[in-house]
Amino acid sequence: MPCTDLGVTEAAAQVRAGTLSPVALVEACLERIRAHDARLRAWAYVDEAGARAVARECLAEARAGRLRGPLHGVPVGVKDIFHVAGMPTTAGARPWAHRKPGEDAASVALVRAAGAVILGKTHTTEFAYRDPAPTKNPWKDGHTPGGSSAGSAAAVAARMIPLALGSQTVGSVLRPAAYCGVVGFKGTHGLVPVAGVIPLAWSLDHVGVFTRSVADAALAIGVLASRDLAPAPIRAPRFAIAPALWRRATPEIAAHLQATADAFARAGAGVTEVKLPASFDEIHAAGLAVMEAEAAAYHERDFGVHAGEYGPEMRKLIESGLKQTATAYVRANRARLAFREEMTPILAAHDALLSPTAPAPAPDLSTTGDGSLCAPWSYAGVPAISLPSGQGASGLPLAIQLVQGPGASARLLGAAAWCESQLAFSKAPVL
Questions:
Q1: Are the CB atoms for 378 and 174 separated by under 8 Å?
Q2: Which of 115, 118, 235, 425 has the fewest C-beta atoms under 10 angstroms from its C-beta?
């Protein structure tokens, strides 16, 4: 098996055992990027010289029995709204094209301290919103990898790296993970520090990870959260399903979810139908209002100078936010927090809420797709994970989404590990 097929856990274990050289792993990843990124365009910036230098350091340290941490020698890609010292941070936007920070974002510093080798910056939609990035879906030409963490999802799916950092404000980790057939995880709001990440809406922004297994996601998010988040073992999980969510999906996705739920039930899981609280009816409007106001507050100064250089979707978001009243912003925040409070006991009574990650497989490149099934959990600030679960009639990946209540990341990862063992989906795109 090529070393680029190794996940985070396997690669780190082989580096520790001395059977895999970090130098060889980094070179293999760089070779894969050179071979395929001209078509996929997952990368905004690749630091070949810097990655090779760190890999050599990691090799020498491993041979001497000195490991920096659980990610020692593991190559990582970083979404281009995260600051990485010495690398450009463009946020996919022309006004920021020449900015180069002097220090790492907090999350980048954490993975670097754990031994990761930062390969470079992955493409993002402009300022992590809706204006598409140049990245293409590795599974099928002409289709989006999703957004906003487009490059991170595509790079992990294409076996260019085993781990990438992304961010989610609406659906920017889970939806790209679903479209690209990889695992995407984001924890409770505030679990991972966001310092040094260009905000879209600070009340809603989450740092998340892309991997190819639940175990890898748990390892990575544990490093980022500075705590052990190993999946809690679950033998007979209890899943909630909400028809109101399933009705938003296409017939193909709804049928896939039903077949998946039936298979889980045959394997011993409990599957119970639940009704979403009345506050669900307001959550999308409330989340959008918060995002508009906070995006406008952050961008107001730059927007006054560079408005014409912003993409149409981002420009519309900021303009709406600049018109918003303080009372509307407060009402919106109260509405989303009410939804979180009302959902928490429903989620706590089950090991996870099971739903589609996206209403349909990846659409064409004119859009980044529909994030409406991920958005409520971003707005509520609760942990959620997307797992690849099959292929649709088009050949594009299908996915399921699992959700838990605030502070229950380990429980959610345990439920996800059980689901992963039942799904047994291991296909990769043919490049």
A1: no
A2: 235
Delimit the domains of the chain by residue range: 3-225, 238-278+339-380+387-423, 280-333
Cα distance between residue 422 and residue 409, in whole Å: 20
pTM strictly above 0.85: yes
CB atoms closer than 10 angstroms to residue 196: 19
* Coil vs helix vs strand at 38: helix
Given a contact cutoff of 8 angstroms between Cβ atoms, the answer to whether 15 and 146 are in contact is no
DSSP state of 212: S
**Paired tokens of 278:** 């009345």
Each residue's pLDDT, cut to its tens digit, for the chain (431 residues) gives 899 999 999 999 999 999 999 999 999 999 999 999 999 999 999 999 999 999 999 999 999 999 999 999 999 999 999 999 999 999 999 877 778 899 999 999 999 999 999 999 999 999 999 999 999 999 999 999 999 999 999 999 999 999 999 999 999 999 999 999 999 999 999 999 999 999 999 999 999 999 999 999 999 999 999 999 999 889 999 999 999 999 999 999 999 999 999 999 999 999 999 999 999 999 999 999 999 999 999 999 999 999 999 999 999 999 999 999 999 999 999 999 999 999 999 999 999 999 999 999 999 999 999 999 999 999 999 999 999 999 999 999 999 999 999 999 999 999 999 999 999 999 999 99
Report CA torsion sign: 357, 43, 46, 109: negative
Catalytic site positions: 79, 148, 172
Distance CA 74, CA 220 (A): 11
Instruction: Say which CATH topology domain 3-225 has.
Output: Amidase signature (AS) enzymes (3.90.1300)
Q: Which of 303, 300, 292, 416 is nearest to 354 (CA)?
A: 416
Contact call for residues 173 and 148 (beta carbons, < 8 A): no
CA distances from 159 to 7, 29, 35, 91, 180 (A): 9, 8, 11, 23, 11
Tell me how far apart the alpha carbons of residues 431 and 423 are, in angstroms, rounded to a whole number: 24
CB neighbour list of residue 216: distance below 8 Å, 6 or more residues apart: 7, 8, 9, 162, 163, 183
Collapsed DSSP state (helix, strand, coil) of residue 280: helix
- Contact in structure between 394 and 361 (CB atoms under 8 Å): yes
